[in-house]
Design goal:
One of its GO terms (molecular function) is oxidoreductase activity, acting on NAD(P)H. Belongs to the zinc-containing alcohol dehydrogenase family. Residues 10-336 form the Enoyl reductase (ER) domain. It comes from Zasmidium cellare ATCC 36951. There is one protein chain. By secondary structure, this protein is of the alpha/beta class. Helix content is 29%, strand content 26%. The protein has 10 helices and 16 strands. It has helices spanning 41-49, 90-93, 121-124, 128-139, 171-182, 196-201, 215-226, 240-252, 282-298, 318-327, and strands at 3-8, 16-20, 29-38, 58-59, 63-71, 83-87, 104-108, 112-114, 161-166, 186-191, 206-209, 229-235, 257-260, 273-276, 307-313, 332-337. Strands 3, 5, 6, 7, 8, 15 and 16 form a 7-stranded mixed sheet that branches. A 6-stranded parallel sheet has the order 11-10-9-12-13-14, sandwiched between helices. Strands 2-1-4 form a 3-stranded antiparallel sheet, with no helix packed on it. β1 and β2 form a beta hairpin.
């Protein structure tokens, strides 16, 4: 069996499709034959800026869906041929075999979950990184500055908590809305006007247009109207474009916890704390993969969103995927089929 990968040789280098070693699983790993891979902004940012990579050449890619090809000695929850989705960890391990953009990839079993037959590999591939990014911000402890919700349930009961998700139509925002709703929280979410119905379909009790001039006051009013204990803000955008609204909202509410996916401003309003999300966190997110993802997908409680936008079939299209993602997509996730 031969393997091929979309290699990256260094900063500002285009991807190069070439042969790669067939990965061997460690004791707690699985090897997956990929059928679909999704592209994230971090991929083209690494290509443009050369950040995060420990050594070149390497294989990027965080989101994969495919079938189990080989099992590590300690892995008992999967069998060969299982349809799965996985979060790939090459940015953490520094090892190319752990990257997603190849025909066969090594995955940590703890960040792998079975998917139902009703869900295509293409659509499933949009989930992993967004799930883990959303999960860390929502479920890590309030003592560390995170939102600290209870873990999601297939039969959630109202928790009496309310949160705001800024950027709800993004991959991370769409998962944050679903997870927080499954944790019993009321979710107010903000996106562009044409995506507001999408936010409500995911569970948001109120969906607001960020282009409205009064958005800060509108969000504060919606949060107060929802009632309960305001637990914090998940900023799925985390750039100056969102901070200029999110931080005034937090300040007007008397201070709160803000989970951010990129570095927060050094100067924060009084009473506002910002905690940086790190998507690879087994202690926080392992439980999501172990207990929630598979049954929630099977029962339709967790939707694989946003919609996959397929740019081609074959590793040679991964570069096109980078370019498409960089150009901008709304309420869609760029996917390459294999």
């Amino acid at each position: 069996m031969s393997n091929q990968a979309a290699w990256i040789d260094g900063k500002a280098q285009k991807l190069r499709v070439a042969s790669a070693d067939l990965p061997k699983p460690g004791p707690d790993d699985v090897v997956i034959k990929n059928h679909a891979v999704a592209i994230n902004p971090v991929d083209w940012k690494i290509q443009d800026y050369g950040v995060f990579v420990q050594s070149w050449p390497t294989i990027l890619g965080e989101d994969i869906a495919g079938e189990v090809y080989e099992l590590g000695a300690n892995v008992s929850k999967f069998k060969k041929g299982d349809r799965v989705v996985a979060h790939q960890l090459s940015l953490v391990t520094g090892k190319p075999e752990d990257g997603g953009f190849q025909l066969y990839a090594r995955a940590a079993a703890v960040f792998t979950a079975k998917i139902p037959d009703s869900l295509s590999y293409t659509q499933a591939s949009v989930l992993p990184l967004a799930l883990d990014t959303a999960g860390h911000g929502l479920y890590d402890s309030r003592e560390k500055g995170f939102i600290g919700l209870d873990y999601p349930s297939l039969t959630p009961k109202p928790s009496g908590k309310t949160i705001l998700v800024w950027g709800g139509s993004s991959s991370v925002g769409a998962l944050a809305i679903q997870l927080a709703t499954a944790s019993g929280a009321k979710v107010i979410s903000v996106a562009s006007k044409h995506n507001l119905d999408f936010l409500k379909s995911l569970g948001a009790v109120e969906a607001l247009d960020y282009n409205t001039p009064s958005i800060v006051d509108d969000a504060v009013t919606a949060i107060k109207s929802a009632g309960g204990d305001f637990a914090g803000i998940y900023d799925a955008i985390s750039t100056e474009a969102s901070y200029k609204f999110v931080l005034p909202i937090a300040e007007k509410l008397g201070g709160t916890h803000v989970a951010v996916t990129l570095p927060a401003p050094k100067e924060l309003p009084s009473g506002v704390t910002a905690a940086n999300v790190f998507a690879v966190n087994k202690d926080v997110n392992g439980r999501l993969w172990e207990e929630y993802v598979t049954p929630a997908l099977e029962q339709g409680k967790l939707k694989a969103v946003p919609e996959a936008f397929v740019v081609g079939k074959g590793l040679e299209y991964v570069q096109k995927g980078f370019d498409t993602n960089k150009a901008g997509v709304s309420a869609k996730k760029v996917v390459v089929e294999l």
